[in-house]
Known about the structure:
By secondary structure, the chain is an alpha+beta fold.
Amino acid sequence: MPIEMTMPRLSDTMEVGTVVKWNVKPGDTVSAGDVIADIETDKATMELQTFDDGTIAKLVAEEGQEVAVGSLILIIAEEGEDVATAAASAGAQSASAGASSAPAAPTATAAPPAAPAPAAPAAPAPQNGSHSSERVFASPLARKIAAEKGIDLSSIHGTGPAGRIVRADVENITGAPAPAAAGAAPAPSIGVPAPLPPAGATPQEQVIPLSNMRAIIAPRLVESKQNVPHYQVSVSARLDALMELREQLNEQLEPQGVKLSVNDFIMRACALAM
């Protein structure tokens, strides 16, 4: 019987989650404890582990898709079960459970006969062993840092639980970028401004969806400003002696091109006080 995995509630306030990245594909074999995906919640990006052994039959949710808590995201075929059959049967059951696309809801009862069509991707099943052995286990933060530095995670020995690559492992790597980055397009130099559009050109509108975390932060800020009492505190201080000292020091440092501000003295006073 196929095993259906739904979007878990990874935080107390989580209502929806976004599949940032799948670490498996149809045909891969998985064991309990394997990290199969990175899920973005309203607070952070977390790893999703499987609690069952079997073969990945179907990825119901796509990368970047926002899925409600409790909705189907993955189908696993049990050991000895046909992958195509598991994907087809579970797909028919999920059609009536309410997939994320609203237009498909009115025809949910007629959809099951066409469900076997997605079974075609199950052909790569013979490769499941090789892909599973090449899988790299790393935390989402370690993956992000490695991508920014161009580091190949497969060349790093993890020091985390069960050999998982953690942030410290990636930050300690100072080698050359991963070979795969050689053929990629060169990244734009930092600090080089983007070319200006020609005169008279109409700017193109670009809509970037908010992450789950930002979507929660926005209403929380409004609530804090509207519902929480605010008050301001001010302090007066005599800075005559400080201003004289600043003027003297700036005269001495002028040949070096250095000019001290009042804020510099306040920062030093705070540092000495602490």
